[in-house]
Amino acid sequence: MKNLLYTFLILMSCSCASSKKITTLTLDKSPCLGDCVSYSLSFVKKGGTTFFVYTSQGKTSSIKLPATIEKEICSQIDAVSTEELNPFYGRKGELDLQKIKLQLKGTTIEINGPQHIPKELQSLMNTLDQLIQN
Predict the structure, then answer these.
(1) Which of 16, 19, 36, 80 is the right S-S partner for 32, CB 3.0 to 4.6 Å?
(2) Coil, strand or helix: which one is 30?
(3) What is the pLDDT of residues 61-120, one digit of tens each?
(4) CA distance 20 to 33
């Protein structure tokens, strides 16, 4: 039984490159003292369909992700080398900035303020923001 659980966990952590599907990616953006859009975003696979699930202003929505967008996100995820990223960006203690927490490929990256998003993540973050805005 334990081996079955380990096998399941290993299969769940496969990258986009091997499965051409989004696997583990979550994004949480907190409110700030300005005009920050706050939300939580994750991806859920049901059968052969991927949905993006997001919560904003206390309301949760689940929307089918078009295959073209899924492919684009997978490509952006595959382009990111999490080993080269720091676990934290920005300055600690700045309480008025938006807190961003991205879990990607089993790595958690915290960013204090959108101006501190590393260039390696900017394209992916812009794509995820566009999903919420549309």
Answers:
(1) 36
(2) coil
(3) 999 999 999 999 999 999 999 999 999 999 988 888 999 999 999 999 999 999 999 999
(4) 38
Residues 6 or more apart whose CB falls under 8 angstroms from that of 71 comprise 20
What's at 7, amino acid-wise? T
DSSP-based three-state secondary structure for 97: coil
Structure tokens at 39: 């939300």
Nearest to 110 by CA among 90, 134, 83, 130: 90
**Amino acid at residue number 26:** T
Q: Binning pLDDT at 50, 70 and 90, where does residue 21 land? A: low
pTM over 0.90: no
What ranges do the domains of the chain cover? 2-133
Instruction: List the beta bridge partners of residue 50.
Output: 45
The residue type found at 46 is K
CA distances in angstroms from 66 to 24, 48, 50, 107, 134, listed in the order given? 18, 12, 8, 26, 13
Let me know: does 101 contact 87? Beta carbons within 8 Å: no
Cα–Cα dist 97/39, whole Å: 15
